[in-house]
Amino acid sequence: MMPAEDAYAIIDRIIVNGFLTAEMRVDGSYIVMKNMSDRESLMLDMFRDAENVLDDIACRLSFCTFSVDGMNFLPSRAEAMPALMGFWREAPTSLVVATNMAVQGISERYLEVISYLEGYCYTDKSRYLWRVYKEGGLFAVPGAVALGLNAVQENWAVVNRSLDDEDDYNKDFNLSLMVASSFNSKGAKVISRNYDTKRTELLELRAEIAKWGYDRKRVEEEKKQSEWTVPLRSREDLVRELYRQMRGEKDKHDLFMEKWMQKQRERAEQVKQRAIERAKQWREKAQAAPIDMEGEDSRQATSEEVEKLSGARASYVSKYMSAYEGLDKDERFLRKIGARVIGE
């Protein structure tokens, strides 16, 4: 991609002149060619003969001819078209090919800089041109009015109108805030602080876009999304995607999911193997030191053993209760609570 400064210089010419030019010297004559505007592309069908290739090329070059030896053909395009058509029909093939390549080059350059228009609209030079020219003052070249506004000029005008509305809103907002501060100063300060924060973030984003000519973060995110999945913007894209899936072709998203599933399978297999190893180690340990199960069979306790166990329990309870003998209800409660707190 070209540097933003170079793109901005080209956009300046497109906005002020309405087109880009390519100069040529042919047998002592000075020919200036221009790229075709949007309106000219629609008018071309009224003059061209698409079935005749030579006439079609001659018609296109006639529309793209700006001047020959200083004679501007834009103001009298309709009257000059027959002469221009005859000139390009009789021109040498080498001249036609070279001129066609030159026109194609400036047309490609015109399309290339359109992606930098957003960044250009946020520059000081753009706002200056808007204040000086507006729409009516853009037609500085004689005959450019017949061409009408091109796509760059139209979008540039729309963005600048929005920026003008934004400036008017900022003025009205500050006046309203000044009036509101006399009734509720704290609320007005909160609103002003929130507005200034959002305004600062917006201006920083626009400065970043003006630096590079486009929103780098947004472009990088769109690029990542396009790499992960095949974009579907039309019925033809959907058909191509279905055929791609039928052929078994995989995009980046499919490869990622396949790799992720493979990792999950490998991880599950590792967990399974570790469980098998632990079970194997436990069996080996159990076989090395078997538990002695040869003991006395379980039997029911005798009455003497039950009586002996009950006597031990009764002795413990009587010993525990003797500590509270002679105490009234409140003291007994306080001692129990104290013992519990100390124990905790």
Query: Which structural class do the helices and strands define?
Result: mainly alpha
Under the CATH scheme, which architecture of the domain at 4-115 would be assigned? 2-Layer Sandwich
Counted by DSSP, the helix tally is 14
Tally of DSSP β-strands: 4
Q: What's the alpha carbon Rg, rounded to whole Å?
A: 44 Å
Overall shape = elongated
Task: Give the overall average pLDDT.
Answer: 79
Question: Can you give the helix content as a percent range?
Answer: 55-70%
Question: What is the third-level CATH name, the topology of the domain at 4-115?
Answer: rbstp2171
Low-confidence stretches: none
Strand order of the largest sheet: 1-2-3-4
- Strand content range: 5-15%
Explained architecture:
This protein is 69% helix and 5% strand. A hairpin with a 2-residue loop joins strand 3 and strand 4. The radius of gyration is 44 Å and the shape is elongated. 13% of the residues are buried. The protein has a domain at 4-115: rbstp2171 (2-Layer Sandwich). Helix 1 (4-17) packs across helix 5 (93-113), helix 3 crosses helix 4 (77-90) and helix 8 (151-181) runs antiparallel to helix 9 (185-212). The protein is mainly alpha-helical. The protein has helices at residues 4-17, 38-44, 53-64, 77-90, 93-113, 117-121, 124-133, 151-181, 185-212, 216-228, 235-247, 252-288, 303-321, 329-343, and strands at 21-26, 29-34, 65-68, 71-72. It has 14 helices and four strands.
